[in-house]
Amino acid sequence: MFIPQDISEVATQVVSPFKTHHTPLPTVIPDLPRVYYQTSSEVGHRTLWVVCVLMGLVSLAFYIMAARVPVQKRLFHILTAFITTFSFLSYYAMATGDGITSRPYITERSKHGAVTEIVERDIYWARYADWSVTTPLLLIDLGLLAGLNGASILVTVVSDVIMILTGLFAALSRDQAQGWGWYAFACIAYLTIVYQVGYKGRHAVSAKDDKTKTFFGAISLFTLLLWTAYPIVWGLAEGARRVNVDGEIIAYAVLDVMAKAVFGFWLLLVHDGMARTSPSIDGFWSHGLSHEGVLRVSLPLFKILLSCTLTNSELGRGGAHT
Fold this sequence. Notes:
Blueprint: H1 5-15, E1 34-38, H2 42-67, H3 75-96, E2 101-109, E3 115-123, H4 125-146, H5 150-172, H6 176-205, H7 210-239, H8 245-273, H9 284-287, H10 299-321
Parallel strand pairs: 1-3
Antiparallel strand pairs: 2-3
């Protein structure tokens, strides 16, 4: 298209630079925030490997102890061996670097709100995966030892899973206030566990012999005291970040060895010493499927089911008469 000369001159004048008498503002490039990394040193790395090997050896010892008792009395041995086996796998994942992620935290801002300092800390998510499996098994050990009913054991296990998951959410939270909120939920769930094991467990075990009552009181108190130390370590390490990653690893390692390996040996050695009074499980657990391909239920369970059936039948007949 042809543009007349006078029009082009006007366009040239429009696009020409605008003259001003003001001094131009200097271009300011904001400083990039400082980033600090909180990771484990050689001390923490070696600690992970030491506990990994230790949990492997303890698991092997528990499986050997399980093989030396009749299958009817092997429930505690298998549960306890599973606890240290999962712990061995978790520590192997952390020691090799596969069970670790990192989470950035804003630790400093300027007076204008700009981020000036960021800390990126290692989060060992494999530890939470371990706890989500091993701590319910440990609580089942205590529940069966005390003679808790199924409803109480279920409430205890679900509360434990909630505690572990909310602890993981707190560790992965980007906002510190939200993280402490998840931490509060975890503490509430832990109080439920203390109530079920400490109060209802002692009430249930009161119907058993003196040796079992004394043993349950000691080992449950030992467990709850150790478990109380876990949220304290979390608050100082992953929560407030007052403890470095090496200190966090060492603290959790000591607690895990005490709460799993020492607990397991204590439970199984005393349990084997109470062989006459310890429960014996028959039926499918000991003998599997029968030749007819059906599950064989133990006599006490059959009596319970039979009494429930008769009660329901009587209620039905009573309703028909009315």
